Amino acid sequence: MADSVDYAAAAGLMLLAAGEVPNFLAGMLPSLMTIRRFGADQEDRDTLRRGEIAGSALSIMVGVGASLAADSWLPLLSVLVILGIMLYMYEEAIRNPHAGAKPINDPGNLPS
């Protein structure tokens, strides 16, 4: 990175990049409530983790791009912080399904 940084531009790109993290994860994953309700079998959990990887990769790409545009590490740092928080929340939901959670294709989930 260069010696002179436009901190206003870096801060703006930092906020924009960090704000995209939840969007990428939401594009790859269902809501936390849905995960806790239907994430009852290993196949579903494996699929959710693949979504975490894809959403994380896209988020990091935006962080790197914003950091290069801003000539500052602030955008990437903000993406990594928000990504860590969001992945913690998703993992907590995956590892702690509701007591009555069933696989999403369970016949008991169909309307009567």
Radius of gyration using CA atoms only: 18 Å
Main sheet characteristics: none
The poorly predicted ranges are none
N- to C-terminal distance = 61 Å
Helix content: over 70%
- What coarse outline follows from CA principal-axis ratios? elongated
Q: Which sequence of SSEs, written as H and E, runs from N to C?
A: HHHH
Q: Which structural class matches the secondary elements?
A: mainly alpha
Average the pLDDT over all residues and give the rounded result: 90
Tell me the fraction of residues in β-strands, as a range: under 5%
Total beta-strand segments = 0
How many DSSP H or I helices?
4
Describe the structure in your own words.
- By secondary structure, the chain is mainly alpha-helical.
- The mean pLDDT is 90.
- The radius of gyration is 18 Å and the shape is elongated.
- The protein contains four helices and no strands.
- The termini are far apart.
